[in-house]
Amino acid sequence: MTKPIWIKHAAQLATLASDVKGPRSKEAMSDLGIIEDGSLWIEDGIIQAVGTTKELEKHYSKRGDEAEIVNAMNHLVTPGLVDPHTHVVYGGSREHEFEMRLQGAAYMDIMNAGGGIHATTRMTREATEDELFEQTIRRLDSFLAHGVTTVEGKSGYGMNLETELKQLRVMKRLQEQHMIDIVPTFMGAHAVPPDFKEREDEFVDYLIRDMLPVIAEEKLAEFNDVFCEKGVYTPEQAERILEAGKHFGLIPKIHADEIESYGGAELAAKIGAISAEHLLKASEAGIQAMAKSGTIACLLPATALYLREQAAQGRKMIDEGVAVAISTDCNPGSSPTTSMPLVMNLACISMRLTPAESLTAATYNAACAINRQEQVGSLEVGKLADIVLWNTKSYQELQYLFGVNHVKSVWKKGVKVV
Ligand code: NIG
Ligand code: FE
C-alpha cells in the first residue's frame, strides 16, 4: 500500500469539472472549475476528494499523519495534460528536411520526391521493435516532463502489415511498461506507399482486406485514421477505409484539410468521426457541419508554425460551436516537439483562444478526442490522479509566459514521475 497524497494550498486548483459532459464548446470551454486555495486527497492512484484546503482539513486532518503532504505554495494545479494526436513511434530523424524547407522546398514536394513520410517509413521498417521501443521511451519521458500524462499514438510509418503491426506492438509494450498512458490509433493510410503509386484504390483494398482484420483481431488499436488530402487519399477513399474500420469497432479520425481545402471536415461530420485533425483549410460548410455533428476539431498550431502556414481558425470554430482540442502532432517531419505547454501558448497566440479555452483544449476536450473523458482530463473524485503542479500562480500566467516549461511536479496515477 502506498501512502495517500494530500496536495494543499493550490492558488488555483483548475479542476475542469463541469456539468457539461462530453466535448465542450463556446462558453463551456471557459469554465475551468477553479477552486481557490484548493486541495486534493489521493489514494491508490485515484482522486478521493477535491475541495478547498479548509474543507479537506475538516475531513482529513485526523489522517494527516498517514499522508505525504505536498504544499503547492500558492501555485497552479491542473489535470495532467492530454495529447490526443501524435506519431510518436518512428525510426530515424529528418533534420535535413527542415533545412530544405527553410530554403523553400514544400512539405508535399519533399514527400512526393520520396522524402517526408516515405523517408520515415523506410527508417521505421528498418528499425527493430526494440530500437523503436527505446527511441519512443525517450520521447514519452519528455512528454511527462512537459506535464503530459496521456498521449494518443498513431501507426502509419509502416504502410505494410508487418511494420504497422510492429509500431502498434511497440505501443502495447509501452502501455504496459511506461508510466504514461498511450492510446493506439491505426493509420495504415498515412501516405500512398511507392509500390502502390497511382494504384491508391488497390492499396485501400489491401488495407481493408489484409490489415484491418489483423489489427482488430489482436486488439492493437482503438481508432482508425487516414490522411485525406489532395494527392494522398480522396474523401471517397478515406470514407471506405473509415467505414470498413467501423465494422471492426475502430472509431474514425481524419487528417483533414491540412494543405488544401478538400472536404475532409465535411466527411468527418458525415461519418461521425470522433475528431478531425489539422483543419488549416477547413471550409465554412465543413466548420458548420462539424459543429452540428459534434465532431471535435483537433488543432495543431505547432505544426502550422513549423510549416510556416497560417494556423487553423480556432477562434471561429469555438464561436461557431465546434469543440476544440489541441495537440503537439509530435512527428519527425512537421512537428518534432513534445511540448504541450508550447502548444497551449500557440493556441492563444496564433488561433486567439483565450488562456482558459486553451487549457480546456489540452485537458478535458483532448481526453474526449480519445474517449478517455471518464478517466482523465479533469480533477474529479474517482478519476485517475494525473496531476501537474506548475511553477506559475495562475493559468493566465501559464499561458502568458511563453515557450518555457513551467512544470514543477507531475503525478501519474498518484505516482510522482517528475
Ligand atoms: O499529421 N500530415 C500528415 N501526417 C503528419 C506528418 C507526418 C510526417 O511528416 O512524418 C502530420 O502532420
Ligand atoms: Fe498527424
Helix and strand topology:
Blueprint: E1 5-14, E2 34-43, E3 46-52, H1 53-60, E4 68-79, E5 81-83, H2 95-102, H3 107-112, H4 117-126, H5 129-145, E6 148-154, H6 161-177, E7 181-189, H7 200-217, E8 223-228, H8 235-247, E9 251-256, H9 264-271, E10 275-278, H10 284-293, E11 296-299, H11 301-306, H12 314-319, E12 324-326, H13 340-351, H14 355-362, H15 364-369, E13 387-390, H16 395-400, E14 407-412, E15 415-416
Parallel strand pairs: 1-4, 5-6, 6-7, 7-8, 8-9, 9-10, 10-11, 11-12
Antiparallel strand pairs: 1-2, 2-3, 4-13, 13-14, 14-15
Helix pairs in contact: 5-6, 7-8, 9-10, 13-14
Fe (iii) ion (FE) is lined by residues 85, 87, 255, 277, 329, 331.
Question: Can you tag this structure with a few keywords?
Answer:
seven-stranded mixed β-sheet; 38% helix; binds N-(iminomethyl)-L-glutamic acid; binds fe (iii) ion; 418 residues; eight-stranded parallel β-sheet; alpha/beta
Radius of gyration, in Å, reads 21 Å
- Measure the end-to-end span: 21 Å
Profile the largest sheet: 8 strands, parallel
Low-confidence stretches: none
- Write out the distinct hetero groups bound to the structure: N-(iminomethyl)-L-glutamic acid, fe (iii) ion
Beta-strand content estimate: 15-25%
**SS field, number of helical segments:** 16
- The coarse overall form would be globular
Mean pLDDT: 98
Structural class comes to alpha/beta
Write down how many β-strands occur, each being a DSSP E stretch of 2 or more residues.
15
Strand order of the largest sheet: 5-6-7-8-9-10-11-12
User: What share of residues is helical?
Assistant: 25-40%
